[in-house]
Amino acid sequence: MKDGTLSPQEETILRKILDGILAERGVDFRGYRSKCLWRRVVAAMHDINIDDAGEYLGALKKDPKAYDKLLNKITINVSEFFRNPETFFAVRDKVIPELIRRKRLKGSKVIKIWSAGCATGEEPYSIAILLKEIFTGENASFQANIYATDIDEEALQKARAGRYKRIALRELSSEQIEKNFIKESEEYYSINPELKTNIKFVYHNMIAEPKFNKIDLIFCRNVIIYFNKSLQRQVYENFHKILAKEGYIVAGKVEALMGIGEDLFERVSLSERIFKKKI
Ligand SMILES: C[S@@+](CC[C@H](N)C(=O)[O-])C[C@H]1O[C@@H](n2cnc3c(N)ncnc32)[C@H](O)[C@@H]1O
Predict the structure, then answer these.
(1) 98 and 179 both lie in a single domain
(2) Which of 131, 211, 247, 255 has the highest count of CB atoms within 10 angstroms of its CB?
(3) Which of residues 74, 107, 128 is at a domain's end?
(4) CATH number at residue 117
(5) What is the pLDDT of residues 160-178, one digit of tens each?
(6) Of 250, 254, 257, which Cα lies nearest the Cα of 232?
(7) pLDDT digits (tens, 9 = 90+) for 250-273
(8) How far is CA 136 from the centre of its chain?
């Protein structure tokens, strides 16, 4: 790969690898950006001491189990509690009060949230912690239903287990840790079971037909960046379809929804990548 562009030969091998993943594992990465995918493929083949992509393709054909390791590399699960804390503050100050106001008008008490591409669970748990803090006093009767989805079963299992290293909790205050975690040892902390009750961790590919409806707020951060423009458009159309009237999307700091979905969404906070469904 020179200047970030794949050679025709690399492009051909990548296509064959992606066809293989689709056939063997049923996951379609063909609309993901070649550059990102190629970096992961190279990392996966170096892990098994192969330098030549053609040879790697042969190795995948010979031992389809190698697709699991490659899938793990592609679905990079890096996440953090309260990743980009300013975004969570903006959601707390600009989005949730408005959702509460609308729900009150309708006589409803449930806010439906979807964390799409939830990886190992840090994002949906952060949302649950944030809402628990907001749903006190006059808002105490409100409740959040959080759907958390990913295409990586291993990541979902970790998310459901809710066990994290102390270092992963660095953005949380000691009060938040005390209220929401159980200390297992100096190194490991587990999510308080009570916090899990309103979160459903489900396997779901966001490229497929949307599963949910009338969602009030979608977090989809640091996933769409890997998709090519037409796939990004498809996902944003899906989100538009299933959001409630004037529902919100929170994209990742690296993701610019504008240029792809401005006919579907309007800005609420550009710096925090918060958008609202246009009517
Ligand atoms: C970098 S993590 C982002 C985690 C979290 N949203 C955050 O910002 O901290 C990206 C996650 O997206 C998931 N992912 C990639 N493609 C997906 C798809 N088509 N549908 C659902 N999840 C997907 C990956 O498996 C990975 O766990």
Answers:
(1) yes
(2) 247
(3) 74
(4) 3.40.50.150
(5) 999 999 999 999 999 999 9
(6) 257
(7) 999 878 777 788 899 999 999 999
(8) 27
